[in-house]
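User: Structure tokens for this complex, please. No commentary.
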Amino acid sequence: MKNTTPKPGLRWSTFSAPSRFYALAGRVVPWLWAVSVVLGLAGLYVGLLVAPTDATQHDSYRVIFIHVPAAILSMLLYLALAFWAAWGWIFNARMASMYARALAPTGAMFTFVALWTGALWGKPTWGTWWVWDARITSEFILLLLYVGYIALTEAIDDVRRSAHAGALLALVGVVNIPIIYFSVRWWNTLHQGSTIKMTGTSMHQTMQLAMWLMMFSFWAYSFAIAFTRSRAIVLEQESDTEWVKALGAAPSEGKA
Amino acid sequence: MIWTSFDDFLNMGGYGLYVWGSYGATLVVMLAEVMMTRRRLQTARQSAARENAA
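Assistant:
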């Protein structure tokens, strides 16, 4: 059965109405998955089969193709979470608060990946799995912020109060992001400085290519998973509205 | 292609544990997140359908 409602135009408000978001995201998500898988496979191919062995770190350096994109996404997703949480709070916009909640588990996942791959890279490079230096400690605090945000928003049943409390926590935690980013400059740390610089990077071209491919793959993944989770949250929070009840009547959209 | 054999590829110049431990764990947590999220959406859909039937 075809959708009989008129096609919504692409205005900024398109994504602010839960019913419109639900339908539109449903169409976009398969393409995002496709982009993520294609770029990811290309990144793995270049990173594991084409890029040469590093002169100083040998093949242990290949962890970088996951470690750096995951670490960058862990910070970007937190900024996006805080932005939508603040937007939802200030403008009392339900959809914005739902985006914020949808981003949290993915941000936590990438933070965990950054820490895990960092430990596995640190062992052969520094001789230790873990050290409480500024970079690693602040990234660990980021994981606690994500977990705290999830626990807090899940603990409060009232949707509005939950969004407000979550936004407050998210905004206080934003201070941690520049601390993570600049930690390697502000303090003497075991962790090395930025690998990607705008001018004159030290990396071989195929190594850079692999890293960017993985970065955009993770980026597309983040959009795909956050949109999918947003759709679930929309249905959960809007379950008593007419459009969700009408959705339940239409069997055509059974598969995702 | 920079490897001479499949064993050479798996060995990763002696760093196999660290490289595959990183890539493997990442793949596992990403796939787990995808499965959990899809299940969550499925459950939300089913309860919407139930609400409609009631």
